[in-house]
Amino acid sequence: MFGRRYRPADASYLRSQAASGLPVRPSAVSRGLAMRIAHAPDDHRERMRLAQLLVDDLDDVAALPHCRVSVADRAQAHQHDGRRLQSKTYGYYQCDFRDGEVANARIRIYHRTAVRQQVISPKVFLNTVLHEWTHHFDFAGLGLDRSPHTAGFYARLRALAEALEVGFVLPPEQELVTHLSPAG
Question: What is d(CA 144, CA 158) in angstroms, rounded to the nearest whole number?
């Protein structure tokens, strides 16, 4: 996000960076659910139902504790300076720790855009579900005490989306964008 300060690499950062492979081998059920979400109607209840089924299946396959999904039919939390949007939150992941284990894990997704309050596209919704589930995997699967947005995190997210056959919901990789951009 904006205004990040340099922070020396800690153990969680280094482990997140190093773990770049597929976090789980998704089932055919997961692939079908992901595709249904990518083409889901605008109804936040139906999207929440499908997202919960997907997260449940990914949790089962990865042997992770349950993670509850909620979809708020409201605008994304955001900051605006009066002229421009400064930042926005598509969704977030939270969990508690009990005896060193993840408990009470939850994903919350905002269903409407920050400024215009339009329903987010199914692809953005699915991207957000997968992004937040990757945080769940980091805490519950990798045992990290925080889940930084490292290159390893994004590699796990991309590998998951590609294994689910919905890689098209993610932004293009930076290398590809660099090579496709016109020379300046």
Answer: 19
Residue 152 CB partners (closer than 8 Å, separation 6+): 16, 17, 18, 19, 20
Secondary structure in 3-state letters for 131-143: HHHHHHHHHHHCC
How many angstroms separate the CA atoms of 53 and 76, rounded?
23
Of 4-8, 109-113, 153-157, the one with minimum mean pLDDT is 4-8
The crossing angle, in degrees rounded to 10, of helices 11-18 and 151-163 is 40
Q: Greatest CA span in the chain, whole angstroms?
A: 55
67-75 vs 101-112, strand pairing mode: parallel
Unique residue bearing structure tokens 């990865």: 62
pLDDT tens digit sequence for 14-60 = 999 999 888 889 999 999 999 999 999 999 999 999 999 999 999 99
Q: Where are the domains of the chain?
A: 24-180
In order, the DSSP letters of 74-122 are EEPEEEE-SSSEEEEESEEEEEEEETTEEEEEEEEEEEE-TTT-PBPPH
